[in-house]
Design a protein that fits this description.
Strand order of the largest sheet: 2-3-4-6-5
Number of helices: 15
Largest sheet: 5 strands, parallel
Distance between the termini: 42 Å
Shape: globular
Structural class: alpha/beta
Strand content: 5-15%
């Protein structure tokens, strides 16, 4: 049991099979307990916090509706995989997170049959899941394949190469767009603007409920989306923190799926922990921290950081040469280019996630 957060229901759930035996009305409580468990564990180990807090309800719903591990879930990047690990038999090892011989901070095939694909690089989930779906079809099997990808990862070219192939092949597969309007840093680019426009199309809950009651997936309006132009059916946007709605949407998707489907789910990075919700980076990656105050216990460095030295040197050089510009792929703070951007706001370019 967690020290700061009581977890009486989670204490009874060590595998997704046990989760699926719970009555649906218990899933909200379970989600709350999983969120508390993530906060408690990461406060002691450090790690990726904000992304996992944002997908708690989605993770619970996925393992409740789908027959994992026979049904395959591929998490893009997998910064958000801690709730998944807790629910798939690794809760008692979460204290070893990111330590030698301990649990990986990402999905890892060596750890669990529930991790069919090892991740860490961005924008690979759709292509990996398409590979699983293709292999399934060649083997004559009928299991489901789900890719979960964030709006930041969706901005990289690899994701669109995969959608291009998925739309052409028409494989039976679900893509869940986990849209929290943020990658590691605030979003940028035309696709971010496009998704912002899609977010504005969300239907009132009463209309979504009526459609789900009728056994259909709600869709905001009849205007085609970019995804449908690529041959992938679109449904949403949905409230990613309504676990009851998530279960209903995923159940209809599972039972009616006959080709590629993209479910647009809106979530909040850092959801449920005030310190994360109010932070600029939503506590994307943290050191050990005090839960009550959110204060991180970062050791005082004995020497200047590489990032700090690089930022200072680049700023100094740019002050002497106005031809110097900086390009960052969604990680200004991690590269020191946040400082460069403050010094030269017109000479720093954020291009969003752009994995090689």
């Amino acid at each position: 049991m967690s020290e700061e957060f009581p977890t009486p229901l989670l204490d009874q759930v060590t595998t997704p099979a046990e989760l699926r035996r719970l009555p649906p009305e218990k899933l909200r409580q379970l989600s709350d307990e999983v969120r508390g468990e993530v906060i408690n564990r990461v406060s002691k180990t450090g790690g990726h916090l904000g992304a996992g807090l944002g997908v708690v309800e989605l993770t619970v719903a996925l393992h409740f509706v789908f027959d994992t591990p026979d049904d395959r879930i591929v998490w893009d990047v997998s910064h958000q995989c801690y709730p998944h690990k807790i629910l798939t038999g690794r809760r008692d090892r979460m204290h070893t997170l990111r330590q030698g011989e301990g649990l990986s901070g990402f999905t890892a095939r060596r750890e669990s049959q529930f991790d069919p694909f090892g991740a860490a690089h961005s924008s690979t989930s759709i292509s990996a899941a398409l590979g699983f779906a293709t292999a399934r079809d060649y083997a004559g099997k009928s299991n489901h394949v789900i890719a979960v990808i964030g709006d930041g990862a969706m901005s990289a070219g690899m994701a669109y190469e995969a959608l291009n192939n998925l739309g052409a092949q028409k494989r039976r597969m679900i893509v869940i767009l986990n849209d929290n309007n943020m990658s590691i840093a605030p979003p940028s680019g035309a696709l971010s603007d496009y998704l912002t426009e899609l977010r504005g199309r969300v239907l009132p809950k009463e209309e979504r409920d009526a459609a789900l009651k009728a056994g259909t997936l709600p869709r905001a309006n009849n205007a085609p989306t970019l995804f449908e132009d690529l041959g992938v059916r679109y449904a949403g946007p949905f409230d990613g923190h309504d676990v009851d709605e998530r279960v209903r949407v995923l159940t209809i998707s599972r039972d009616t799926l006959d080709g590629p489907l993209l479910l647009h789910v809106m979530t909040e990075k850092g959801k449920g922990y005030a310190s994360a919700e109010s932070a600029d980076d939503k506590y994307h990656g943290v050191a050990k921290f005090d839960i009550a105050t959110g204060t991180q216990m970062k050791p005082k460095p004995a020497a200047p950081s590489y990032t700090g030295v690089f930022a200072k040197a680049l700023i100094d050089e740019a002050g002497r040469d106005d031809r110097i510009v900086a390009v960052t792929a969604a990680m200004p703070s991690g590269t020191g280019l946040d400082k460069f951007g403050k010094a030269f706001p017109d000479r720093r370019f954020g291009v969003g996630l752009a994995e090689p």
